[in-house]
Amino acid sequence: MTHEIENLTPFAHAAQNRCFGCGPANPAGLRLEFLRADDGTVVCPTIIPGTFDGHPGYLHGGIIATLLDETMSKAVRALGVSAMTRQLEAEYLRPVPSGAAIRLEGRILRTEGRKHWAEAKILNAHGKELARGKGLFIEVRVR
User: Fold this and answer.
1) How far apart are the first and last CA of the chain?
2) Domain residue extents for the chain
3) CA nearest to 134, candidates 82, 96, 86, 79
4) Using alpha carbons only, what angle is made at residue 104 by residues 102 and 110, rounded to the nearest 5 degrees?
5) Most buried pick, 6, 39, 87, 117, via CB within 10 A?
6) What's CA 64's distance to the chain center, in Å?
7) In CATH, which of 3.10.129.10, 3.40.50.1170, 1.25.40.340, 3.30.450.40 is domain 3-139?
8) DSSP string spanning 71-113?
9) Whole-angstrom Cα distance, residue 119 to residue 136?
10) What is the pLDDT along the chain (143 residues), one digit of tens a residue?
């Protein structure tokens, strides 16, 4: 998998961003780097270290939920809006290994006013789905 073949473009983040999922200014965070496909899907090839394990060698369920949430949030952000999670549903299909290449993918399902429904999945290096989620995000408007 190469970014050129898939025609993926980097998803910019502010240097001072302290978000646990994607913030480069958070030394304890995951520092996920998302890319955007032409169809609006967001992807993130990554390796999550064992410091985020539950069972040895496998990511903690809360970290898996965080990965799904962050991926859906970036799919909403790709629309050019800021939103916060209202509802999150996670389905754990197979254990997600730590220290191994995985791929996060997210996309918008539908939008109604300030409400955005999204879905995400976590795939292993062979494309097998390990976890998936759905969520509702509410657009946050600056006062």
Assistant:
1) 42
2) 3-139
3) 86
4) 160
5) 117
6) 10
7) 3.10.129.10
8) HHHHHHHTTT--EEEEEEEEEE-S--BSSSEEEEEEEEEEEET
9) 9
10) 444 457 899 877 677 888 999 888 999 999 999 999 999 999 999 999 999 999 999 999 999 999 999 999 999 999 999 999 999 999 999 999 999 999 999 999 999 999 999 999 999 999 999 999 999 999 998 77
* Lookup: tokens for 138: 């509410």
Of 77, 142, 86, 143, residue with least CA distance to 108: 77
Site of tokens 């006013």 = 113
Residue type, 17: N
Structure tokens at 129: 């789905």
Place of tokens 């949030």: 73
Residue 5: partners with Cβ closer than 8 Å, 6 or more residues away: none
Give me 22's structure tokens: 């994607």
